[in-house]
Each structure stands twice: as C-alpha cells, then as structure tokens.
Write a structure and sequence with these properties.
single chain; alpha/beta; 7-stranded mixed β-sheet; binds S-adenosyl-L-homocysteine
C-alpha cells in the first residue's frame, strides 16, 4: 500500500494550534495525514476537502477512529465558499492547504503522473472531470504547448520540445507517459552530470496545466482568509517556486493597507530539516507559510 508521510507536521500544528479545539478545514485532505495529526492534537471537528475520490477513500480509512468528527467532501478547494455556505458555516478556526500531488497519485499505477512506468498519460487529480494530459497534448497548438512547458516547467528548451511533440503526434497520437518521455529525451539528451531526468520539467508543466494548479490560487487564499475567525490561522505548504511565489505575494498583499486582512507569521518560509528530507523525499522542496486573521 502507498503511504503518504505528511510534510512539515510539527510546524503545521505549531501554527494551527489545534489544542485550542475548534473547526478546521483541511483543503487537501489527501490520505489524511495532517488531519489525523490535527485530530490527535485536539481539533474538535474537521472538514476535509479533496478533488481526488481515491484520496478521500484513503482518508476515510485513516480517519475512521474520528469518523463522527470528520466530514469528507469531494470538491475543489477553490469552492471553499460553497462548501462552507452549504453547511451553514460562517467562520472557521483554522485552514490548511498542502498543495500539489500526493504520493498516492504519483505512485499508484494508472494515474499517469509518472514516467517511471509506461501508462496512459492522464495526470488528472480528479479523474472524474476535465481533460487528461493526453487530450491536451493532442489538441493544443505548438505555441500553447511551448508556452505551458516554459511557464509551468521553467524549461528552457520548451520550443524544441513542443516542436518534437507536434511532429510525433502527426505520426501517431501520444497516449502514454513512456512515449512522451521518450520524445522529450530525444530532444534533450541526458548529460552525464544531469541529476534529474530531462523529462521531469515537461511532466511537471503538463501536470500543473492539466490540473490548473496555479489558476485562482490567489483568489482561493483571499477567500480562505476571509473565512477565518479573528485570531485563526491559515497554513499553506507549497512544493515548487511558482506556487510559493503566488502564496508569498498574495499573503503580503492581504497584510497591507487600510483593509488589512491578515498578519503574516512567517517572514521566511519554514522548510524541512535534513532529517525530514531524508525520511521523506517528498519534503525536499516544501515551503510553509502561515498568516493570522486580524480584526
Ligand atoms: N496533507 C495530505 C496530503 C495532501 S497531497 C496528507 O497529509 O495526507 C495534496 C492533495 O491535494 C492531493 O490529494 C490532491 O488531490 C489535492 N488537491 C490538489 N489540488 C486540489 C484542489 N484544487 N482542490 C482539492 N484538492 C486538491
């Protein structure tokens, strides 16, 4: 069975202070690791959101001992207003979003996130809706492919890769992770000193694009902040610089001016120590930022 070790758990608990009790929203409940820690530390009630039905099943198992205090919701966290409104909830005592993909999604065969296996190129966190990576690769213009690979993968050779994709799909649709990885590797031969597979950045870009990971993140943060009780806190964990940049700038903006909403608690992001990174490779690029609702 896939296990998912929650990242930066002690900092998460330190900022969210569940020992004071109250209602917490876990916007990315995943396999339930963070929620479980919140419950064990005193949270009275949890609303756990995830867009991945498979994750919710795992969370249900993890959180079974607290079933009467947990509600799991299949939704996009960007719909947090609707989730709370439909339950008659105005304000909450703390909110967590641990962004990105889970090890369940990455490691479960058939989800199509990884080029470590050859499988259908899917990459949807919510396989019940939207277009798969194969669909996007099949219908996007060379220009859009290049732009996405550049913007979301920070890949210098995006134009070359997009050109190769368009040439290859003319011969045969690109339907598997293995074929896409091979196309990228052919244009970007691996050099001896290269630490990572040359396909990594292109796969990251497609994943972010397929799942619209950066779209509406700023608005989500504003909404989540507005739904906090005075003194309640918002904790965000990000896994790449594009995401972290949005979180950093949005929190700073909410911490300014006449209509100041929050006070940012983390001047610099909290990052894992060497020991945590060794135990849990997923923690490697994690950054945690926290803010407290004022007035
Ligand atoms: N904190 C969790 C792991 C979260 S991994 C734990 O301790 O187990 C990130 C999760 O966020 C994934 O399950 C993914 O499906 C979910 N996710 C990512 N973007 C989302 C979105 N926009 N709306 C809802 N869930 C999302």
């Amino acid at each position: 069975m896939t296990t998912h070790v929650p990242v930066l758990t002690s900092a998460t608990l330190e900022y969210l202070r569940p020992e004071r009790g109250g209602l917490f929203v876990d916007c990315t409940v995943g396999l339930g690791g963070h929620s479980r820690a919140l419950l064990e530390s005193g949270a009275t009630r949890i609303i756990g959101i995830d867009r991945d039905p498979q994750a919710l099943e795992m969370a249900r198992a993890t959180l079974a001992p607290w079933a009467d205090r947990v509600e799991l919701v299949h939704a996009d966290y960007r719909a947090i207003d609707e989730v709370l409104d439909s339950r008659g909830i105005q304000l909450v005592d703390g909110t967590l979003a641990d962004l990105g993909v889970s090890s369940l999604q990455f490691d479960t065969p058939g989800r199509g996130f990884s080029f470590q296996r050859d499988e259908r190129l899917d990459m949807r966190m919510d396989p019940t809706s939207g277009e798969s990576a194969a669909d996007l690769v099949a219908r996007s213009s060379e220009r859009d492919l290049a732009d996405a690979i550049y913007a979301y993968g920070e890949e210098r050779f995006s134009r070359r890769i997009a050109r190769a994709i368009v040439a290859a799909r003319r011969e045969q649709p690109i339907e598997t992770t293995g074929r896409l990885a091979a196309i990228v590797r052919r244009v970007l031969p691996r050099h001896g000193h290269m630490r990572i597979d040359p396909a990594t950045r292109t796969f990251q870009a497609l994943r972010i694009w397929v799942n619209g990971e950066l779209e509406g993140l700023d608005r989500f943060l504003e909404t989540a902040a507005r739904r906090l009780r005075a003194g309640a806190r918002l904790v965000l964990i990000t896994f790449h610089s594009l995401e972290d940049r949005i979180v950093k700038h949005t929190l700073r903006r909410l911490d300014r001016g006449d209509e100041r909403q929050v006070s940012v608690l983390t001047k610099k992001p909290v990052v894992p120590g060497d020991e945590e990174i060794q135990r849990n490779p997923r923690a490697r690029s994690a950054k945690l930022r926290a803010a407290e609702r004022i007035n």
